[in-house]
Amino acid sequence: MQNRTESLLQQLSQRILILDGAMGTMIQRYTLTEEDFRTPELASHPKSLKGNNDLLSLSKPQIIKEIHSEYFKAGADIIETNTFSATTIAQADYDLSHLAYQINFESAKLAREVADEFTAKNPDKPRFVAGAIGPTNRTASLSPDVNDPGYRAVTFDQLAEAYSEQVNGLLDGGADIILVETIFDTLNAKAALYAIQEVYEKRNIPLDPKEGGIPIMISGTITDASGRTLSGQTTEAFLISISHVPLLSVGLNCALGAKELRPYLKVLANKAPFFVSAYPNAGLPNEFGQYDQGANEMADQVRDFLKEGMLNILGGCCGTTPEHIAALAHMAANFQPRKLQEEELEETLD
Predict the structure, then answer these.
(1) DSSP 8-state secondary structure symbol assigned to residue 288
(2) Are the beta carbons of 161 and 194 closer than 8 angstroms?
(3) Crossing angle for the helix pair 156-173 and 186-203, nearest 10 degrees?
């Protein structure tokens, strides 16, 4: 694991790394039925399971491996595990909380197998697995009941416990990175970071990737033109709130297209002591909730980020496909990665 962390840091110092695109968008291409989501053990499960995409790592692992392969072929350096909703909290909607660990373990194992295959074919371009941790479908900062603003549907301790199980599954399955993503409530993210710290301590894993630790990536979500997360923080406030941990990177994803994301990414690029990531949606959704922005149009919008030296890691979120990732990878190869403040200081002293 130390060797993969060192390799990742070396790659980041040399070039902009490419993250994969949307998992859900690719799964939709398969037009799956209810039966496709059911393992033999779940054949008579009373609740509908269609749409529980994380479950496909157990019921249709070959599909998930194919999607990972498509993104690697398109030029991705890092793929995310199929675990966005693989917590006991999110899986409770399907009465499948008991499968949370297994989903995380198997999803990381699948991604690891594909990453190792591609690395073996081209050792000069090592491929990495990011264990994806979504925000869950509950928020620790806001009440879901307008008539009871003090009510919370989940506690910090419940979130931390759920995240701990997820992190253990991802690490046991072989993830190189832990990615806490699509953060709309910083208190949820803090619970995830708390859980990660506890798991690392028990496993004797350093927090700092420079000390051989398993890197932690954080990616928040600006929900609208106000420039704030759902729980009300500005980009800078969000950065300050999570900077107590020696992160690999901080960034933004989802909710907005590349053009709309630019001013908030600039804040991170100017102020973050970590690497900066971005994986925007393929534009804004149309009236049917579909994403129409093509690969080249998205790449054109992202070019401004790269010209200004704002990014170290670039990928795509909702609506993006291997075509989008290929266009981003091709373009990013022509630009230098953002320099960390310590690198700039070293150059000044030299």
Answers:
(1) T
(2) no
(3) 50
Q: Contact at 8 Å (CB) between 67 and 115? A: no
Phi-psi region at 114: left, alpha or beta (left = phi > 0; alpha = psi -120 to 50)? alpha
Strand partners, 276: 250
Q: How far apart are CA 104 and CA 83, in angstroms?
A: 6
Report yes or no: 257 and 316 within 8 Å, Cβ to Cβ. no
CA distances from 171 to 117, 168, 174, 178, 190 (A): 19, 5, 5, 8, 19
**Under DSSP, is residue 160 helix (H, G, I), strand (E, B) or coil?**
helix
User: Two tokens at 154?
Assistant: 């989940």
Determine the average pLDDT of the residues in 32-61.
Answer: 97
Any idea what DSSP says for residue 1?
Answer: -
Instruction: For the chain, give the longest Cα–Cα distance.
Output: 68
pLDDT tens readout for residues 283-294: 888 888 889 999
pLDDT for 2: 46
Residue 301 reports pLDDT greater than 50: yes
- Structure-token pair, residue 76: 């991705």
- Per-position DSSP letters for 62-114, written without gaps between them: HHHHHHHHHHHHTT-SEEE-S-TT-SHHHHGGGT-GGGHHHHHHHHHHHHHHH
Burial of 19 (0-12, 13-18, 19+ CB in 10 A): buried
Answer positive or negative: Cα dihedral of 72, 78, 84, 88.
positive
Please tell me the distance from the alpha carbon of residue 61 to that of residue 173, in angstroms, as a whole number: 14
Buried b (16+ CB within 10 A) or exposed e, 68-92: bbbbbebbbbbbbbbbbbbbbbbbe
Q: State the pTM of this model.
A: 0.94
C-alpha–C-alpha distance, residues 127 and 123, integer Å: 9
Task: Read off φ and ψ for residue 279, nearest 5 degrees.
Answer: -140, 90
